[in-house]
Specification:
The structure holds 2 protein chains of 2 kinds. By secondary structure, chain A is α/β, with parallel strands linked by helices. In chain A, 44% of the residues lie in helices and 11% in strands. Classes of the chains: A alpha/beta, B alpha/beta. The interface between A and B is medium-sized, with 29 and 27 residues. The complex binds thiamine diphosphate and magnesium ion. Thiamine diphosphate (TPP) sits at the interface of chains A and B.
Chain lengths: 272, 309
């Protein structure tokens, strides 16, 4: 499968979903898309009819506001009806609320309050060790989210228990709601911080699927410690006027902006 | 239709007062936009502290500032403020009795379809259960202003919950009856008393007007002071009217209605019906849709009163 083409198709779905629903977190969705595509179309052992298989890989979207990206991927992989998602997302009485919810097939854990997912992933990885299963556990945090102290409790525990079946991602797009991470609360030296806590650290261009895939492979072959992939991404990646703008954290495109975004994504798709 | 949100009023009052009082400090946790505190942050940079996405640190730092004589206002979504930083609120603010004002924004189910992680339908229970912590849910922009001006005069902990969007005025400009920790009588009545707090006071008022048309005389009490709750007004209502209906944007246990039932049971037993959100995740929808679904809007209140009276 051409994963780059898939990532562009998912980006189009994300823009469509948010435009139709009139709400969503478009910036963080577009920055995390390539990570999700590599995990869900290549790396992870998960399938719609295998969500109660104890050997399946586990995924936790700790930055739960990027739910539109996750739902577009899950819908495309057949975990649920895509039409229902597009028709009802965030609308009255829908089962698809604006954060991951485990009533929805494919979602392991409810998230949305930042700074929870990594601790949960540590628990899942620990259970894998206890039960001698060889599944892997993945979690994605935002860089603004890394200001939550609970993350660093989980980072400490992950290294302490040598959870080499755990791979964490930091979506390092350098933006949060109120501005850049460096203005709001410094997140620099992310690599050094994780390394000091005893993790294997890989820093990559985070919207490059080959780089993501290589890093995930390296993590699988690293023994005795968990791996963190610092994914240096662009918030809003793929749509010129959304890229690198704090205001697009949760802005909704107007009709003209929607048309422009779809056109740009189509053009990029044609150039592949 | 009023377009000024309660949070905007808080920003404006603090902006005005902080020009005279340099000890007033506003703290946010990547929340200044949703808190309506952007202009405060821009105009008072030396009195504004950004802590990033770290609500426990937000409340702990506020308590430290307060212990050194500052007057901190920690402004963050009510959901995270009332649960994530609950222990800081309990130990560093309530137990230590520090002058921290916790402002919970986008409270209740204001965040609508964002779901339970973002709802704060348990904050009266969490914050109200702490000795020393006062809990206020003002109903409209005028009362919000009166409340904040009043709280600026004391040096004790308080939690104030407000909603996300502008709500209809309950009171009139220039005519805002307000006495701290006393319920406001919105409308006199003799058959039933509707006790409401926060944004639902507007619905209680509308319901009372509709009930009047049906020949039912409903008293409406604005119990913005959920803690310390106005016991006297509750006991008086229990004596004067056959039925009390409470209305709140909170789950059914440990909210304002629970307190009313506790007080009437001990002092003046009367039938009390609590209109609340359910003890379950709420349905997906905008806050008005959620109120309607659970019968908390004017129509639902009228229905309950006519059925129960
Ligand atoms: C505990 C908690 N505090 C605050 C929020 C509100 N919030 C949602 S997204 C966000 C910014 C996230 O920034 P970042 O982690 O950098 O994510 P990204 O840039 O990938 O969107 C905030 C503050 C939240 N969801 N949870
Ligand atoms: Mg970010």
């Amino acid at each position: 499968m051409n994963l780059e083409a898939k990532a562009l198709d998912i980006r189009k779905d994300i823009v469509e979903l948010i435009y139709r629903a009139g709400c969503g977190h478009i910036g963080g969705d577009l920055s995390v898309t390539d990570i999700l595509v590599d995990l869900y179309y290549k790396q992870m052992n998960v399938a719609p009819d295998k969500m109660d298989d104890p050997n399946r890989d586990r995924f936790v979207l700790s930055k739960g506001h990027s739910v539109e990206a996750l739902y577009c991927v899950l819908a495309d992989r057949g975990f649920f009806d895509k039409k229902e998602l597009f028709d009802t997302y965030s609308q009255y009485l829908s089962k698809f609320i604006g954060h991951p919810n485990n009533k929805v097939n494919g979602v392991e854990m409810n998230t949305g309050s930042l700074g929870h997912g990594l601790s949960v992933a540590v628990g899942m990885a620990m259970a894998g060790k206890m039960d001698k299963r060889d599944y892997r556990v993945y979690a994605v945090m935002g860089d603004g989210e890394m200001a939550e102290g609970s993350n660093w409790e989980a980072v400490t525990a992950g290294a302490h228990y040598k959870l080499d079946n755990l791979t964490a991602f930091v979506d390092r797009n350098r933006l949060q709601i109120s501005g850049t991470t460096e203005e709001v609360m410094t997140a620099d030296e992310q690599e050094e911080r994780w390394a000091a806590f005893g993790w294997n650290v890989i820093s990559i261009p985070g919207n490059n699927i080959d780089a993501i895939d290589n890093a995930v492979e390296l993590a699988k072959h690293t023994k005795g410690k968990p791996t963190v992939i610092i994914a240096n991404t662009t918030k809003g990646c793929g749509v010129s006027f959304i890229e690198n703008k704090a205001a697009w954290h949760h802005k909704v495109p107007t009709e003209a902006e929607y048309q422009q975004a779809m056109k740009e994504l189509d053009e990029r798709r044609a150039q592949l | 239709m009023n377009k000024i949100a309660n949070k905007q009023v808080i920003n404006d009052v603090l902006l005005e007062e902080s020009a005279k009082d340099k000890d007033i400090i506003v703290l946010c946790s990547d929340s200044r936009g949703s808190a309506g505190m952007k202009s405060f942050a821009e105009e008072r940079p030396e009195q504004f502290v950004e802590v990033g996405i770290a609500e426990q640190n937000l409340v702990g730092i506020s308590a430290g500032l307060a212990s050194c004589g500052k007057k901190p206002f920690a402004v963050s979504p009510a959901s995270f403020l009332s649960t994530r930083s609950m222990e800081q609120a309990k130990v560093d603010v309530a137990y230590s009795n520090t002058n921290v004002k916790l402002i919970g924004i986008s409270g209740g189910v204001s965040y609508g379809a964002l779901g339970m992680t973002h709802h704060s339908a348990t904050d009266i229970a969490t914050m109200g259960s702490m000795p020393n912590m006062r809990v206020y849910l003002p109903s409209d922009r005028f009362q919000t202003e009166a409340l904040v001006r009043s709280l600026l005069k004391d040096d004790k902990p308080a939690y104030i919950r407000i909603g996300r969007n502008a709500v209809e005025d309950v009171y009139e400009e220039g005519n805002v009856p307000f006495e701290l920790d006393k319920a406001t009588l919105v409308k006199e009545g003799t058959d039933v008393t509707i006790i409401a707090c926060g944004e639902l006071v507007g619905d209680a008022k509308a319901a009372a007007e509709e009930l009047a048309g049906k020949g039912i005389s409903a008293r409406v009490l604005d119990m913005y002071c959920v803690k310390p709750i106005d016991k006297d007004a509750i006991i008086q209502a229990a004596k004067d009217t056959k039925l009390i209906v409470t209305v709140e944007e909170h789950t059914m246990y440990g909210g304002m209605g629970s307190m009313v039932a506790q007080i009437t049971a001990a002092n003046a037993p009367v039938k009390v019906i609590n209109l609340t959100l359910p003890d379950a995740p709420v349905v997906t929808g905008k806050s008005r849709e959620i109120f309607k679904y659970y019968g908390l809007d004017a129509e639902g209140i009228v229905k309950t009163v006519t059925e129960q009276l």
